[in-house]
Write a sequence for this structure.
C-alpha cells in the first residue's frame, strides 16, 4: 500500500475522531470557564412538579433490647410562581400526594394524610435557594396516630440546596450551612447541616445539561421534650453525602439525593438510650 493511500485512510479515520472529540469538548465549554453565576429561575408560566421520597431506619438500644423502626414518606408537590422581586420569589406549593408509614415492633402505622392532600401554602425563596418565609403552612397538619399530629413545614424548610453567592467553575468548592428548627409532639429540636460542596462536572440528566454537585455534610441534632411522662434530651451527629443535578441554564434542580448515617443518645432520668439512624432522601423533577 502506498504511503499516500495509507495517509488518506488514516485521515479518513482521524478527522471524524477529532470532530467527535471537539464536539464532546464543545458541550463542556458551554459552561463559562471564567466562572458562572448559579441562580434559581422559577418561570411564571411553568408549573413544576416534584416527588420526594424520604426513607429512614432507626435502631434504639433499650437496656440491651434492640428496637428497630423504619419509616417512609412519599410526597408529590407542585410549585407555581406567584410573585417575584429583588428579595426573592413567592411560590405556591401544593401537596398533590402524601403517604407516610412507619413500622416497629408495635406494628405498622399508616398516617392519615388526607387533611393536607390538595392543600396549598406559600413560601418565599431567594435566588440562591434560601427559604425566607412561609405563609399558611402552620395550619397544614395530619395525624400520625391517634392523639399525635404533625405538620408538613419541616419537609419544605430545606427544600432547595443553597447555591454559591459568587461565580464558580468546574472543580470549585463552596460551603453552605442550613439550620432546621422543629417543634412537634412535645419535642423541640434543632438540626444544623454544614456542607462542603464541589462542582465535579457536567452531565445530561432527563434531557437537561446539569452541573453535578457533590457535597460532604456534617450534621448535628440537639433537642428536648417529654413523652409518656418522661422528660428527656437528645443529641446526635450524622455525617452524610449529597449529589445534586442542577440545570444551570434553566435554573432548576432536576434530581438530588442525600444519604446520612448517624448515632446519638436519648438521655432521660437515670437512663441513656443509644440510637443509630440511616436516612435516604431523593427529590426528582417529574415530567
Amino acid at each position: 500500500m502506498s504511503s499516500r493511500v495509507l495517509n488518506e485512510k488514516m485521515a479518513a479515520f482521524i478527522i471524524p475522531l477529532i470532530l467527535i472529540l471537539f464536539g464532546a469538548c464543545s458541550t463542556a465549554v458551554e459552561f463559562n470557564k471564567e466562572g458562572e453565576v448559579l441562580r434559581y429561575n422559577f418561570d411564571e408560566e411553568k408549573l413544576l412538579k416534584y416527588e420526594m421520597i424520604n426513607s429512614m431506619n432507626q435502631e434504639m438500644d433499650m437496656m440491651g433490647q434492640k428496637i428497630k423502626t423504619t419509616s417512609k414518606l412519599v410526597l408529590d408537590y407542585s410549585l407555581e410562581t406567584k410573585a417575584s422581586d429583588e428579595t426573592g420569589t413567592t411560590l405556591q406549593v401544593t401537596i398533590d400526594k402524601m403517604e407516610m408509614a412507619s413500622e416497629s415492633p408495635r406494628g405498622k402505622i399508616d398516617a392519615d394524610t388526607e387533611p393536607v392532600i390538595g392543600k396549598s401554602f406559600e413560601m418565599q425563596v431567594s435566588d440562591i435557594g434560601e427559604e425566607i418565609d412561609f405563609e399558611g403552612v402552620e395550619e397544614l397538619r395530619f395525624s400520625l396516630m391517634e392523639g399525635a399530629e404533625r405538620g408538613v413545614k419541616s419537609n419544605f424548610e430545606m427544600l432547595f440546596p443553597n447555591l454559591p453567592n459568587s461565580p464558580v467553575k468546574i472543580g470549585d468548592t463552596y460551603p453552605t450551612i442550613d439550620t432546621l428548627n422543629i417543634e412537634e409532639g412535645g419535642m423541640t429540636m434543632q438540626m444544623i447541616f454544614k456542607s462542603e460542596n464541589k462542582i465535579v462536572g457536567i452531565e445530561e440528566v432527563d434531557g437537561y445539561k446539569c452541573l453535578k454537585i457533590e457535597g460532604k455534610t456534617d450534621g448535628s441534632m440537639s433537642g428536648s421534650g417529654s413523652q409518656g411522662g418522661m422528660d428527656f434530651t437528645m443529641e446526635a451527629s450524622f455525617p452524610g453525602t449529597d449529589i445534586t443535578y442542577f440545570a444551570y441554564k434553566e435554573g432548576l434542580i432536576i434530581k438530588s439525593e442525600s444519604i446520612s448515617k448517624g448515632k446519638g443518645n436519648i438521655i432521660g432520668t437515670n437512663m441513656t438510650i443509644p440510637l443509630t439512624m440511616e436516612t435516604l432522601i431523593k427529590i426528582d423533577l417529574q415530567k
